[in-house]
């Protein structure tokens, strides 16, 4: 079950301003039946002030609550004030929404924008972002350039992006687009050529590993590297040690995975 | 306000008799069944008797065909990975589009690992295209995997006939049946079938969560999923979960004894609920349309109303049910089972599953039939699809 705030519960149980307005000055829509949520908002506007607002919503508890509270937020306000309302304001007014449900507040915001366009006689088809920034994650309002910036600052995975700017942490519908950006912008620095790869391995073995094994009068030699399999030979006291396998997995492999490549397997050659 | 629990396909109340049966194995008979002293003997004996009871419940040939596990998902994983591992030269699997996610996601994973998976369709009633399934069995088919009863719609698939026909085409192909939603609801008699592997989960038939079983037909080769000690004849390592095994065996016996009640009284309550809703709510559409289904389950779609919203309002009336709606699950994806059946978007997102148990009473069903139409009436008023709804209600 979702953890809904008391305010969300109050609004889906007893939604305010349900219905339609005859001769409405503006009507806005968002969502679609196939996606599982659709919202219609009706406005009465007098002298630039929203005098009445009603809604009809097909959607979950948080979708109804977002619509209901939105009507309360805009009645009595001027169009200029209403234009400044963001989806986050709607969620905040509800004392927060679960991350997976942030898109419900986005839908409320979209329907409101659509209604204002309708009022000013603008084209209501999906709006054109040419001169605005391209938004990838609608739930948290994260733009394409924000995500690219996060990648350039070192984010390599979806989770890392999410930690930086929450993108993809809401309804998850934008995840394919974020993945595309990751594919395009993450530097493939793991694809070093094989000579560099072997040199890197040897360096770790000769320095950190050899130093540690040397404390027990042991040693290690690199025998071969095939793909991610690293073949080594233990020398000195290590060669006859019954804990050799443990040393290789827990220490040598760990060091190589940490410093060279996460997928390295260390294999002992007798 | 009393609680009305109509979500027994999700989990069930632990039967009081089951709790009583388990209790001594926590503080008195707590020995490790593998130990040598008298204390352990009691625990060992309890596991032995439990195995016999579960074997009897599933109609197995011998108690040793039963392996105790921790849950239905473990049973499925053990069966599927276990047989594929001993038949490594075969790379083809046949399953259905409507399996439970614990099985479905495993096959999707195996698909990425080089297995070819054939997904069998269901028709608009939810019945399986058995002809399509059988045509696909080849020499390379390692496994055919079909659930016995569907968790969302209750549709029963004729797994006995399927196993028979599969073996005629290729005797080497193994048949795994996810029996989680069938156990305790319909008779099961595995010794009369050609099914090789059959998984169950205790908490779906009034045992606690955290215990399950896998039936492995005698002679079926299977590599273990949990490797370690010699328990369960080396097929599943880990100290036996004695109190839970005892609990599941007790629940199995109770379920077997009350199967008649399930097939008659519970079924008539389910039918009453279904008829009550369909005749009182004009935008209600039956999703569980197969003539062959378990007696406790119905799935009904409400057009132009969203499922989570219905569940939240039912919850406020003390009624627990579940939904195939996108919004109640973490994934935000609508039910793959109803989509496979071709349920239209108009009712897909408003689909509710009611699943009864032998503890369900007539007055609970009457209360639900009384409250649900009022909830739907209220939610219909909120819907933006007034024109479409007017058509339905006129």
Description:
The complex is a heterodimer of chains A (270) and B (394). Chain A is of the alpha+beta class and 270 residues long. Chain A has 3 domains: 114 residues, Sufe protein. Chain: A, CATH 3.90.1010.10; 51 residues, Orthogonal Bundle (Arc Repressor Mutant, subunit A); 75 residues, GMP Synthetase, Chain A, domain 3. Chain A is 43% helix and 20% strand. Chain A is built from 10 helices and 8 strands. In chain A, strand 6 and strand 7 form a beta hairpin. The longest helix of chain A has 21 residues. Chain A is elongated, with a radius of gyration of 29 Å. About 3% of the residues of chain A have low confidence. Chain B has 394 residues and is an alpha/beta fold. Chain B is 41% helix and 14% strand. Chain B has 14 helices and 13 strands. In chain B, strand 3, helix 5 and strand 4 form a beta-alpha-beta unit. Chain B is globular. The mean pLDDT of chain B is 95. The chains are: A alpha+beta (270), B alpha/beta (394). Chains A and B meet through strand 2, strand 3 and helix 2 of A and helix 10 of B.
């Amino acid at each position: 079950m979702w953890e809904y705030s008391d305010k969300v519960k109050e609004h889906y149980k007893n939604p305010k301003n349900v219905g339609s307005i005859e001769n409405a000055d503006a009507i806005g829509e968002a969502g679609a039946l196939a996606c599982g949520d659709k919202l219609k908002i009706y406005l009465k506007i007098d002298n630039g002030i929203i005098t009445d607002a009603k809604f009809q919503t097909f959607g979950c508890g948080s979708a109804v609550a977002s619509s209901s509270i939105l009507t309360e937020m805009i009645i009595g306000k001027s169009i200029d004030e209403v234009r400044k309302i963001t989806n986050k304001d709607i969620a905040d007014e509800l004392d927060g929404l679960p991350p997976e449900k942030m898109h419900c507040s986005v839908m409320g915001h979209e329907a409101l924008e659509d209604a204002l366009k309708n009022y000013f006689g603008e084209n209501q088809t999906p709006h054109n972002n040419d001169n605005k920034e391209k938004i990838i994650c609608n739930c948290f309002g994260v733009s394409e350039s924000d995500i690219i910036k996060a990648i350039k600052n070192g984010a390599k995975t979806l989770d890392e992006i999410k930690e930086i700017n929450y993108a993809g942490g809401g309804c998850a519908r934008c995840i394919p687009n974020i993945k595309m950006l990751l594919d395009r912008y993450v530097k493939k620095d793991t694809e070093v050529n094989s000579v560099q790869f072997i040199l890197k391995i040897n360096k770790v073995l000769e320095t950190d590993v050899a130093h540690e094994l040397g404390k027990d009068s042991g040693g290690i030699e690199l025998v071969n590297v095939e793909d991610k399999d690293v073949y080594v030979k233990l020398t000195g006291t290590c060669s006859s040690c019954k804990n050799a396998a443990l040393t290789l997995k827990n220490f040598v492999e760990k060091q190589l995975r940490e410093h060279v490549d996460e997928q390295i397997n260390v294999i002992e050659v007798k | 306000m009393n609680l009305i629990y109509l979500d027994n396909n999700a989990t069930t109340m632990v039967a009081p008799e089951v709790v009583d049966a388990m209790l001594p194995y926590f503080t008195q008979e707590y020995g490790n069944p593998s130990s040598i002293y008298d204390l352990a003997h009691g625990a060992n004996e309890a596991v032995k008797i439990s195995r016999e009871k579960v074997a009897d419940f599933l109609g197995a040939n011998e108690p040793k065909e039963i392996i105790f596990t921790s849950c239905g998902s473990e049973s499925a994983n053990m069966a599927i990975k276990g047989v594929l591992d001993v038949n490594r030269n075969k790379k083809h699997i046949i399953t259905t589009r409507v399996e439970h996610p614990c099985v479905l996601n495993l096959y999707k994973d195996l698909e990425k690992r080089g297995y070819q998976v054939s997904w069998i369709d269901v028709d608009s009633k939810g019945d399986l295209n058995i002809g399509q399934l059988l045509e696909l069995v080849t020499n390379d088919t390692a496994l055919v995997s079909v659930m016995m009863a569907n968790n969302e719609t209750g549709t029963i698939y004729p797994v006995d006939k399927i196993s028979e026909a599969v073996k005629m085409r290729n005797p080497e192909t193994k048949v795994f049946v996810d029996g989680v939603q069938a156990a305790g609801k319909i008779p099961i008699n595995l010794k009369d079938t050609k099914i090789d592997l059959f998984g169950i989960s205790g908490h779906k038939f009034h045992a606690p969560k955290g215990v399950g079983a896998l039936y492995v037909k005698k002679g079926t080769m299977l590599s273990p999923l949990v490797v370690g000690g010699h328990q369960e004849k080396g097929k599943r390592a880990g100290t036996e979960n004695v109190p839970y095994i005892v609990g599941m065996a007790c629940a199995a016996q109770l379920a077997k004894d009350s199967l008649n009640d399930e097939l008659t009284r519970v079924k008539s309550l389910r039918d009453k609920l279904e008829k009550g809703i369909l005749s009182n709510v004009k935008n209600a559409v039956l999703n569980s349309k197969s003539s062959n289904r378990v007696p406790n389950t119905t799935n009904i779609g409400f057009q132009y109303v969203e499922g989570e919203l219905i569940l939240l309002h039912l919850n406020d009336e003390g009624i627990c049910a579940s939904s195939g709606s996108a919004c109640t699950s973490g994934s935000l994806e609508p039910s793959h089972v109803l989509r496979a059946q071709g349920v239209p978007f108009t009712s897909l997102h408003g689909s509710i599953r009611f699943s009864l148990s032998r503890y369900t009473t007539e007055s609970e069903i009457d209360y639900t039939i009384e409250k649900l139409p009022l909830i739907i009436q209220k939610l219909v008023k909120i819907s933006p699809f007034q024109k479409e709804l007017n058509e339905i209600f006129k």
